[in-house]
Amino acid sequence: MKKIVVACDSFKGCVSSMEIAEHAEIAIHRIYPECMVTKIAVGDGGEGTLSALVSKLKGELVTCKVNGPLFDPVLAEYGIIGGNGTAIIEMAVASGLTLLPMGKRNPMLTSTFGTGELIKDALGKGCRKILIGIGGSATNDGGTGMLQALGYNFLDNKGEKLGHGGQILNSITAIDDTGVPPEVREASFTIACDVNNPFSGSNGAAYVYARQKGADEHMILELDKGLKNFAKVIKENNNRDIDGVPGAGAAGGIGGGFLGFLNARLKPGIEVVLEAIGFNELIEEADLIVTGEGKLDAQTAMGKTPAGILKAAKKQGVPVIAIGGGVEAVEELNRAGFLAVLPLLPYPVTLQQAMDPKFTLENIRRTLEQQLRIIAFYKSKNV
């Protein structure tokens, strides 16, 4: 083989996209020493999106002190791409689930305020194009915290200003936008997300995702009720019907918050990333692409990073191998077009061992090398 492209998502909480690529390169060169390996850091809107884009586009990282999900101070980074006034923000660094220990996770209280502070800081530095990945949130506030940081206020039936978190959603009766500065209205937002859930309902933000953010059954009911109310208020005040829009329920409804108030469009996260880095050009004349993520299952084919990679590869007729720590729905993934779907674990292990970075990287090298040995053997036989 003359050229192999490695473009995996990070294995969340374990190894980064570029670490995977570097260890895959070792395996490739053991079998094909002369092969050109193109290593690409990618993400689908969640963890890893910021580093993937800033690295590839040679941007500048900016550090900003913001409020975390429960208003504890957090040092968060975002990127600025010089020359075109574009900021690249990863919601998870300010409002992410990993910022909170298990005992403090409560989507009735957590807020996206810190994400809004990152946007405000970028606007203050002259950015008018905001690309934001919204995966991995700790919140279910419909984006109200983000909007509050940008100057919006939400009022109850007495005209009193409400506080923060998902707990306020069902009390909102009016919106005060008199404090929103001009730069917020001037900016355009591209929202990278990897889900297509509506704002509320059985497939909405609360029912599908709030439990993993610390909600119990009663909280889920209240949060969904609140999201329905907030969607109603947005429709009445802003003439925007967001409730059933695919992706509006992403990241606890912040997708809907962007659509309801700002000049925003939602796009599949992986498509945003691949377009920004010029992926179609990077895979020209490739013999093989290696992609993957921590878990490969039926959801993988529904817009996750490997699916985006596969879609682009099909257009150029490049075969794609997918690797994952855990693998389900293999036949479905094969039918989607993956040449092979490879699990990394060599034997049953504990979750702690499965998440060990050194163990994972060793398994990536081993698994890929064994697959390439087979390919090399049959190529040498001209089979």
Overview of this protein structure:
The protein has helices at residues 17-31, 49-56, 92-95, 113-124, 144-149, 182-186, 205-209, 217-238, 250-261, 269-277, 279-282, 305-316, 330-336, 351-354, 357-380, and strands at 3-6, 36-39, 60-67, 73-81, 86-90, 129-133, 153-155, 174-176, 188-193, 264-268, 288-296, 320-327, 340-343. It has 2 domains: 3-41 and 287-380, Rossmann fold, CATH 3.40.50.10350; 49-270, Glycerate kinase, domain 2 (Alpha-Beta Complex), CATH 3.90.1510. It is an alpha/beta fold. Helices cover 39% and strands 19% of the residues. It is built from 15 helices and 13 strands. Helix 8 packs parallel to helix 9 (250-261). The chain has a 6-stranded mixed sheet, sandwiched between helices. The mean pLDDT is 93. Belongs to the glycerate kinase type-1 family. This is Glycerate kinase. InterPro entries: Glyc_kinase_flavodox-like_fold, Glycerate_kinase, Glycerate_kinase_RE-like, Glycerate_kinase_sf.
Layout of strands and helices, then pairs:
Blueprint: E1 3-6, H1 17-31, E2 36-39, H2 49-56, E3 60-67, E4 73-81, E5 86-90, H3 92-95, H4 113-124, E6 129-133, H5 144-149, E7 153-155, E8 174-176, H6 182-186, E9 188-193, H7 205-209, H8 217-238, H9 250-261, E10 264-268, H10 269-277, H11 279-282, E11 288-296, H12 305-316, E12 320-327, H13 330-336, E13 340-343, H14 351-354, H15 357-380
Parallel strand pairs: 1-2, 1-11, 5-6, 6-9, 9-10, 11-12, 12-13
Antiparallel strand pairs: 3-4, 4-5, 7-8
Helix pairs in contact: 1-15, 8-9, 10-12
GO molecular function, one term: glycerate kinase activity
Protein name: Glycerate kinase
Organism: Arenibacter certesii
